[in-house]
Specification:
Strand order of the largest sheet: 1-2-3-4-5
Radius of gyration: 16 Å
Protein name: GNAT family N-acetyltransferase
Largest sheet: 5 strands, mixed
Low-confidence stretches: none
InterPro entries: Acyl_CoA_acyltransferase, GNAT_dom, N-acetyltransferase_domain
CATH class: Alpha Beta
Domain N-acetyltransferase: 3-152
Pfam family, one: Acetyltransf_1
């Protein structure tokens, strides 16, 4: 397995955006943050704010993760400041999970981040996503804030 990151094509970006909006809405519903009837609208607004020029939004790098010629996922790194980056999304497509692609993609994005001068990378992970949390901890990411809530 040889993982490499390639800039997304326009077609890949449109496919990713459709997936990402629905996925983000679903995760917000699952987390109890949004009501189902408002989730798609809120998720769409969030993506329009983060990527006003789509894949050509300045300081945002959207990559297709490939193993050879096979597309296995995507990763999105934004440069927030000269020294700080933020991973807004990493997704390994169904059928490709649990094969090490996520770990390798994260390692590749760190190489790229260093090349552009970043000193740190942040990311958000939903609390219920235990697999991703475990991966990030193994890669050296540490929790900076924890938001807790109790439903009454």
């Amino acid at each position: 397995m040889t993982v490499r990151l390639e800039q997304m094509s326009s077609e890949e970006f449109q496919q990713y955006l459709s997936f990402a909006i629905k996925h983000f809405a679903d995760e917000q519903i699952k987390s109890g943050n949004w009501e189902p009837q408002e989730a798609i609208s809120k998720a769409t607004q969030e993506y329009e704010k983060l990527l006003p020029k789509g894949q050509n939004t300045e300081n945002n790098n959207l990559f297709t993760i490939r193993d050879g010629s096979k597309e296995v996922g995507m990763i999105w790194l934004a440069q927030i400041t000269n020294e700080k980056g933020f991973i807004y999304g990493i997704n390994i497509w169904e059928g490709n999970q649990d094969k090490g692609y996520g770990k390798q993609a994260m390692q590749e994005i760190e190489v790229l981040a260093k090349k552009i001068g970043l000193k740190s990378i942040g990311l958000h992970v939903f609390a219920h996503n235990k697999i991703a949390r475990g991966l990030y901890e193994k890669l050296g990411y540490i929790e900076k804030n924890i938001k807790m809530e109790k439903t009454l």
